[in-house]
C-alpha cells in the first residue's frame, strides 16, 4: 500500500548524491521554465530533442537509480499510451458517406494522387462489432508525437526539480523572481509564506489519501460487486472524508501556528545555507541555459 513512497514523484528526497542538488534554486526554476515554454509552437525535432536531453540529464544526474527509475518508467508508459490514443483516435468528424457531386466534376480533382496516410488498415471487426478503418496520417502522427513529448517534458522536468530541491529553496527562488513586483504593491513575502505552507501540506494530503485506501482494503470493499450506484456512493463518501480530514489538518496547523505566536516571515528566513556551493557548476548551467534559448530561436521550428 506504500506505493506513494515507492514512486517518489514530485516529493523532495533528502540526500547528498547528485550534482543537481548543488545547483542554485533560481537556475533550476529557469531550466524548468525552459522545458515548459520552449515546446510551445516548436517542431517535432525540437520536442524529441528535449525528451532525449531529459533522459540524458536523468541518467547522468548522479542521483540513486532507485530514486528515479520507477517514476521514469511509469512516465514513459503514460506518455506512450497518451500519444498512441491521440494518434489513433479521430480528431475531426468523419466525412459524409455520400458526396453531393461527382469527384470527377470538381476542378483540379486528384483522385489517384499521392496521399499523406502513413498507416491505412481495413475495418477492425470482432464478431458483429466493427471499429471502422484505422488510418494514421501525417497530422495524427504529429499530434501523437506532440502530446507524448509534451507530457514527458513537463512532468519529468518538474519532477527533477522537486525531488532535488527543498520547499524552502523553491519558495525562496520564486520570491527572488517576484521581488521586483514588490514596488507595485505585490505582497511577495505573504505569497511566499502561503506557498510554503501549501507545499508543507502536500505530504499530509497524500498520507490521508493513502490511509483511506488502506481502510477500504482492510474492509475488503469491492466496487465491482457493489454496482454503479453503491460504488459511486462509496467514492463520494471517501472524497468527502478526504476533504474533511484535509480541512481538519489545516485547522490544526493554523491553531498551532497562532498558539506559538506565528507571524508571516520572508522565505529567506526558512532557507538553510547550501552545504557545498559550486560557482563553476552554476556558471556552466547559466551558460547552457542561454545556449539552449538561443538554439530554440534558431532551430526551434524544425
Characterise this structure.
By secondary structure, this protein is mainly alpha-helical. The protein folds into two domains: 1-91 and 135-166 and 275-302, no CATH class; 167-271, no CATH class. The protein is built from nine helices and two strands; from the N terminus they run ααααββααααα. The chain has a two-stranded antiparallel sheet with strand order 1-2. A hairpin with a 2-residue loop joins strand 1 and strand 2. Helix 2 (25-37) packs parallel to helix 9. The longest helix has 37 residues, at 223-259.
Mean pLDDT across residues: 75
Strand content: 5-15%
The helix content is 55-70%
Quickly count the domains: 2
Features:
302 residues, mainly alpha, 9 helices, 2 strands
Q: What's this, in brief?
A:
By secondary structure, the protein is mostly helical. 61% of the residues lie in helices and 6% in strands. Strand 1 and strand 2 form a beta hairpin.
Explain the layout of strands and helices:
Blueprint: H1 3-6, H2 25-37, H3 44-59, H4 65-88, E1 117-126, E2 129-137, H5 138-164, H6 167-178, H7 188-218, H8 223-259, H9 279-299
Antiparallel strand pairs: 1-2
Helix pairs in contact: 2-5, 2-9, 3-5, 4-5, 6-7, 7-8
Amino acid at each position: 500500500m506504500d506505493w506513494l513512497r515507492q514512486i517518489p514523484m514530485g516529493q523532495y528526497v533528502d540526500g547528498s548524491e547528485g550534482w543537481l542538488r548543488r545547483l542554485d534554486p533560481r537556475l533550476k526554476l529557469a531550466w524548468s521554465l525552459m522545458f515548459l515554454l520552449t515546446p510551445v509552437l516548436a517542431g517535432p525535432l525540437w520536442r524529441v530533442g528535449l525528451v532525449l536531453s531529459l533522459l540524458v540529464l536523468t541518467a547522468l544526474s548522479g542521483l540513486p537509480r532507485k530514486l528515479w527509475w520507477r517514476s521514469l518508467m511509469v512516465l514513459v508508459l503514460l506518455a506512450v499510451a497518451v500519444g498512441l490514443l491521440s494518434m489513433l483516435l479521430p480528431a475531426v468528424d468523419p466525412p459524409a458517406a455520400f458526396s453531393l457531386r461527382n469527384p470527377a466534376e470538381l476542378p483540379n480533382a486528384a483522385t489517384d494522387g499521392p496521399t499523406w496516410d502513413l498507416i491505412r488498415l481495413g475495418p477492425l471487426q470482432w464478431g458483429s462489432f466493427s471499429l471502422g478503418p484505422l488510418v494514421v496520417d501525417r497530422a495524427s502522427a504529429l499530434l501523437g508525437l506532440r502530446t507524448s513529448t509534451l507530457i514527458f517534458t513537463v512532468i519529468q522536468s518538474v519532477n527533477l526539480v522537486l525531488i532535488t530541491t527543498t520547499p524552502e529553496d523553491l519558495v525562496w527562488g520564486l520570491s527572488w523572481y517576484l521581488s521586483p513586483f514588490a514596488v507595485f504593491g505585490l505582497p511577495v513575502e505573504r505569497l511566499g509564506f502561503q506557498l510554503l505552507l501549501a507545499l508543507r501540506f502536500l505530504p499530509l494530503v497524500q498520507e490521508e489519501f493513502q490511509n483511506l485506501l488502506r481502510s477500504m482494503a482492510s474492509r475488503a470493499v469491492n466496487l465491482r460487486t457493489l454496482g454503479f450506484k453503491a460504488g459511486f456512493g462509496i467514492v463520494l463518501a471517501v472524497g468527502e472524508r478526504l476533504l474533511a480530514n484535509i480541512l481538519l489538518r489545516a485547522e490544526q496547523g493554523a491553531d498551532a501556528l497562532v498558539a506559538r505566536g506565528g507571524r508571516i516571515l520572508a522565505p529567506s528566513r526558512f532557507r538553510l545555507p547550501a552545504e557545498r556551493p559550486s560557482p563553476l557548476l552554476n556558471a556552466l548551467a547559466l551558460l547552457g541555459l542561454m545556449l539552449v534559448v538561443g538554439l530554440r530561436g534558431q532551430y526551434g521550428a524544425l
